[in-house]
């Protein structure tokens, strides 16, 4: 099956922004995974790494979770992504 990827070969457009927000809030990948687990979702720090590196496709559910855990609007993840597709 053909899978759509970004120009740079990554599987998502939002991973870099997620990493940027996480770092600005001084949260490690492991602590972010724990925060998401406490919300009731089964993730680990490898999930976070794969999202941030563009290795994993990101679903709308993932974006809602990241939006809630970071307390930012979903639109934040799409800032300056036009040039990547």
Write the layout of secondary structure elements.
Layout: H1 15-24, H2 29-38, H3 45-52, H4 60-70
What descriptive keywords fit this protein?
mainly alpha; globular; single chain; 85 residues; 434 Repressor (Amino-terminal Domain)
Descriptive report:
The protein is an all-alpha fold. It has a single domain (15-77), classed as 434 Repressor (Amino-terminal Domain). Helices cover 46% and strands 0% of the residues. α2 (29-38) crosses α3 (45-52). The model has no long low-confidence stretch (mean pLDDT 92).
Question: In a nutshell, what does this entry contain?
Answer:
The protein is built from 4 helices and no strands.
Please name the CATH architecture: Orthogonal Bundle
Rg over CA atoms:
12 Å
| Rounded mean pLDDT score | 92
Say how many strands there are.
0
What's the end-to-end separation, in Å?
A: 20 Å
Largest sheet: none
Please bin the fraction of helical residues: 40-55%
Spans of 5+ residues with little confidence (pLDDT < 50)? none
Number of helices: 4
């Amino acid at each position: 099956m053909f899978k759509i990827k970004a120009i740079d070969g990554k599987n998502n457009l939002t991973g870099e922004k997620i990493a940027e927000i996480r770092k600005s809030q001084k949260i490690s990948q492991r602590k972010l995974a724990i925060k998401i687990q406490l919300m009731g979702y089964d993730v680990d720090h490898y999930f976070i790494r794969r999202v941030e590196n563009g290795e994993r496709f990101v679903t709308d559910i993932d974006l809602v979770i990241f939006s809630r855990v970071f307390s930012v609007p979903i639109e934040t993840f799409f800032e300056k992504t036009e040039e990547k597709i």
